[in-house]
Each structure stands twice: as C-alpha cells, then as structure tokens.
Amino acid sequence: MQTINISTTKNKEIIDLTDRINSLLSKGAKLCHLFVKHTTCAVTTADLDPGTDKDMLEAFWEMIPKLNYRHPHNPAHVPAHIASSIIGPDVTIPIKDGELDLGTWQRVILVELDGPREREIIINFS
Amino acid sequence: MQTINISTTKNKEIIDLTDRINSLLSKGAKLCHLFVKHTTCAVTTADLDPGTDKDMLEAFWEMIPKLNYRHPHNPAHVPAHIASSIIGPDVTIPIKDGELDLGTWQRVILVELDGPREREIIINFS
Amino acid sequence: MQTINISTTKNKEIIDLTDRINSLLSKGAKLCHLFVKHTTCAVTTADLDPGTDKDMLEAFWEMIPKLNYRHPHNPAHVPAHIASSIIGPDVTIPIKDGELDLGTWQRVILVELDGPREREIIINFS
Fold first, then answer.
1. What ipTM was estimated for this complex?
2. Buried b vs exposed e over A102-122: b needs ≥16 C-beta within 10 Å?
3. Residue of C nearest to A126 (CA)
4. Which chains touch B (3 or more CB pairs under 8 A)?
5. B120 in reach of chain A (CB within 8 A)
6. pLDDT tens, position by position, B60-76
7. Which domains does chain C have, with CATH numbers?
8. Which residue of B39, B70, B92 to mutate against C (max C Cβ within 10 Å)?
9. What is the rounded distance in angstroms from the CA atom of residue B23 to the CA atom of residue C7?
10. pTM here?
C-alpha cells in the first residue's frame, strides 16, 4: 500500500496522476487500484487535450441539478458530493511492461470538486 | 467470497453498508470488492450527513432524462436502470488495520432505485 | 492478461460482452477485471431487454449538457468523453462456478459512444 498526497489549488480542478503513479509501480504487479478517501473528489480516466479539463468540470457541474438540498452544514456542497459518488472513488488499471496500460490519449485523473484541499489517494498493487 | 443480503424497504433508499462489511473483514486482506447482482441498484461511497441520502436520491432522479423509453415490461423502470449503470455495480475499497480505509465522513452505500426488493451483494477480499 | 478486440459498427452502440468473457475465464479465479484503453467508450453492467440499449444511449446523450466546448480537435467529441469518464473505463465482476456471477438479467456491456472504431478491452483474472 502506498499513498499519494495532493494539494489541490482550485475549487474545481482536474489533476493528471499518471506520471506519479507510474513512478510508484511495483515490479511484477498486474493491477493498480486507486482510491480517494474523500467525498467531494473522484478518480477516473480521460483524454486531457488542452481545454478538456475545463470542458469536463463545466459539464459535471451543469449535469447535477441545483435543487433545494438539505445538507446540514452547507447545502452548496451537495452537487460536489453527488458528482463524486457518480464518477466514483476508485479505479483499477492494468499494468504492462512496468507502466499503466492506458490508451494513447488516456490519463488517470483526480477530479477535484470542492477544493482547494489536501487529498489522499491510496494505491494498492496486486 | 461472502454474501450480504439486504431487504430494502422503500422505492428509493440509501443504505449504509460500512459496519456490516467491517464485521466480515478477512484478516490479512488488502482490498475489499463489493458487487451487486442487480440492474436497478448500485454501490459507491458518500458522505451520509442527515438529509444527504434524500438529496442524493432526488438528484439522481432529476438527472436522468424522462424520455419515451422502449423497455418492454415497464418503461418506468428505465431511469433506475440508467442511474444504476452510471453509478456502477461495484466498488473496491482498501483495508487498513482490519477496517475499510475510508475518509472521516466517507461511508460505503447501497443505492436502491427500484425497491423494496431483496438485494444480494457479493464481497471478495484480496 | 487477455485482450478482447471489438470492431464496433455504429456511432453509439451497446455491446454485450458476457459470453465472450465467460469463454475466457481462468480456472480458479475469483474476480474478473475489465478495462477499456479508450476515452470515448466505457464498461458497466445492465439489463439488456429489447430496446434497453437504445434507451440507455439516448439517456446518456441527453444527460450530458451541450455547452460551448473547447476541445482542440473536435468539440463535438466532448459529450462522448464526459459520458465515458462518468460511466467509467473499468468494472470488476466476481466469478462463481467458472462463470461471471451476474444477476438474472445483468449483462456486462461495452458502451460505444464515438464509433465505429476498433476497441481493445484488457481482461485480468485474480
């Protein structure tokens, strides 16, 4: 088990984790599992052509309905919670020749939806 | 492999699975995989502050467009199917010191979207 | 590690992968992990009653907002990227008695959102 700590710098932000994870890869592992210990950020994969990060963040935000939420501390956080639960807190990626076996344009991303915050990502190889 | 059986009691409901899964944890396991054998419920993680369950269910429902669906038995079920496929039937969570290694406010949840029903969740440790 | 290659034939299409994966299952494996090496398709599970594939594709498309996207090559691809990142590039399914341990109506699906294309799915058993 290893941990990546990320200090996000914006309220909404896409962070490319690919190179950091590749630098941690265990020899002989077949799969890499990532998990965020948080409820207002998520992990997935995506194409990160210039501008695509902003496109994704705008779309995620627009998709979540702005209802009269009940959340006791801050109802304004609810859309970030909902988008995080849908995108999901985890992803598992195969490993080949000592690197994440991604598609040509595919990157592993952290989707920050309520930053800036300190984020902890747990990595397990199997 | 172990199985959790849950009888949901409402049409739409969020059920916190965290304590039940923690009570099943295998000594020495690094990862816990959950899978629902169903097409109208899903598993993910979320903050469960009071009212947040209702917030999430309303938002999931509002997000899914109400189109003229073709489903042969009951077109009214289609939004539950679609939300389930998007949230996803599985999640993998790391284990630390004999417990699910979740964030402070993070819980593992079953999202029931077409209850009340008997739900079966398959748990594997690795 | 094994690979499934699929030539999709439509721009948007749901392809049932269940039988192909069952034919590859390793003896003694407990879990099957699928991963798509792409950013405009995804894998999940769903009920595939007749017409449900079209229902899902229409709903996915309708859900993604049509904003003024920045993507440098083809902004029209952005909704396919976003839906793929949300549905997700991977799913893990338990194995029982030499077959995927799915629910009665549950199938493993590839969601093609920008075809027709050659798609590569990486399969790992553990």
1. 0.96
2. bbebbbbbbbbbbbebebebb
3. C126
4. A, C
5. no
6. 999 999 899 988 888 88
7. 2-125 (2.60.120.460)
8. B39
9. 45
10. 0.97
